[in-house]
Design brief:
The chain has one helix and six strands, in the order E-E-E-E-E-H-E. It is mainly β. It has a domain of 50 residues: Double Stranded RNA Binding Domain, CATH 3.30.160. Strand 3 and strand 4 form a beta hairpin. The N terminus is likely disordered.
Length: 118
Amino acid sequence: MRRINSRFMDRQGGLKMVRARIYQPAKTAMQSGRGKTKNWILEYPRQSAARPDALMGWQSSADTTRQIKLRFPTKQAAIAYCEEHDIVYQLATENRRKPRLKAYADNFAFGRVGSWTH
């Protein structure tokens, strides 16, 4: 029989189900490209509070599930992985970009609202 660590047990002696989060990351504000936004990511939320280390002051925690970050090419692949491994998951909604179509000629339009100077 397998022994289960007590931090994965609830007060009634059953297993705590940690809900994984599946999402598609947003574009970083520091770069103009959208290179790492195509994959879907499965990660676990923080279960215990981070506390400063006594010696160096760095953040430390006994929660090792925060170190897991799995990438999948599609949303269906991430869901299939969770269902295959009996992982309870929460699917985050997709936030699609709404590009504003602009043309260079609009800078010189006669009906331009703002002032245009050199």
